[in-house]
Recover the amino acids of this structure.
């Protein structure tokens, strides 16, 4: 989530491009939307350059060359140690000339936390639509607001095509430093390793665990100092505050109160969230203001949607990793088997893992 100091939500954007032509030929009513997806992905593919050639090119700036060299070290670590796909993804580079690769538009009804979902071939259903141009995203958001929807637009630094194409290192991925770039590579390659259509929480929690544990191993391998745990702890506290507010809103919207009462209570809940955040920030974080921009900006249902998707099953995957004694190959294989289960059975297994139950091989 870009607003919460993490990777933004659309890390798995789609396997859409190979089927776009079929959609167009079928007379799909959203030709404009799918057309911009095809155009945006095609421009991205055309912008790719081999990283090795850029490193060898004397015209490449020293700063970019150094970033790319370090990125390739992380890329090798991803395949050799974390057992992630060994392909040409993140061995090519694309300069976007903009801060984000896509902008995601989230929407909910005014008095509901049910997202406006969009379903795509192969990738399944997701709670947003992605746009390669910020203006297009804002235009789509404006139309949804005219329909009375709560809307949120968030920028995305990177996404995975799930192995359909050689995903590039994007210029938007270079803004957060070498370690952040490594974690993005670990996360995105995880989506190429395992992806389950229609189960965002599973996919993102799995990739987040690989990102987190992979980064710990990466730091040890590089002889780097242990990361400061205060930032992750603050992030977890902040997410917990938002999820608690979301639960209270969910109960409010399900209540028999009138719509007018619900609107007033909705704004009161957002005010309560800000008050609780300020108390935690000032009393426990020594005034660290990293989440101020998010919390003091406009709040609505849609802005709360992304929270929890990245973390819900991380404890379950951590338990599974311990069960296989840190063997990455066995871990990915076990995750693949979980992904093949029907949704209800998969959730039940994840709940058992999170509760500390050992699963049979």
């Amino acid at each position: 989530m870009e607003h919460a100091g993490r990777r933004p939500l659309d890390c798995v954007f789609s396997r859409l491009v190979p089927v776009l032509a079929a959609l167009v030929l079928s007379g799909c009513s959203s030709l404009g939307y799918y057309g911009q997806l095809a155009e945006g992905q095609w421009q991205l593919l055309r912008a790719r350059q081999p990283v090795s050639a850029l490193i060898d090119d004397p015209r490449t700036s020293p700063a970019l060359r150094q970033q790319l060299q370090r990125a390739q070290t992380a890329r090798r670590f991803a395949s050799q140690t974390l057992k992630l796909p060994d392909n040409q993804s993140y061995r090519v580079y694309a300069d976007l000339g903009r801060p984000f690769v896509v902008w995601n538009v989230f929407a909910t009804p005014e008095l509901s936390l049910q997202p406006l979902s969009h379903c795509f071939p192969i990738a399944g259903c997701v709670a947003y639509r992605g746009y390669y141009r910020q203006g297009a995203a804002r235009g789509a958001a404006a139309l949804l607001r005219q329909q009375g929807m709560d809307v949120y637009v968030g920028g995305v630094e990177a996404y995975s095509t799930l192995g359909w194409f050689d995903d590039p290192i994007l210029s938007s991925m270079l803004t957060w430093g070498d370690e952040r770039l490594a974690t993005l590579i670990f996360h995105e390659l995880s989506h190429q390793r395992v992806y389950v259509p229609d189960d965002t929480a599973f996919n993102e929690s799995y990739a987040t665990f690989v990102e987190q544990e992979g980064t710990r191993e990466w730091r040890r391998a590089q002889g780097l100092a242990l990361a400061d745990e205060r930032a992750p702890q603050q992030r977890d506290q902040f997410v917990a505050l938002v999820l608690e507010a979301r639960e209270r809103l969910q109960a409010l919207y399900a209540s028999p109160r009138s719509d007018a009462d619900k609107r007033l209570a909705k704004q009161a809940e957002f005010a309560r969230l800000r008050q609780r955040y300020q108390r935690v920030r000032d009393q426990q974080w020594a005034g660290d203001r990293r989440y101020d921009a998010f919390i003091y900006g406009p709040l609505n249902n849609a802005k709360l949607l992304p929270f929890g998707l990245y973390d819900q099953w991380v404890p379950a995957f951590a338990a599974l990793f311990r069960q296989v004694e840190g063997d990455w190959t066995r871990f990915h294989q076990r995750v693949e088997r979980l992904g093949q289960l029907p949704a209800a059975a998969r959730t039940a297994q994840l709940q058992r893992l999170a509760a500390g139950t050992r699963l049979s091989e």
Observations:
- Residues 1-29 have pLDDT under 50 and may be disordered.
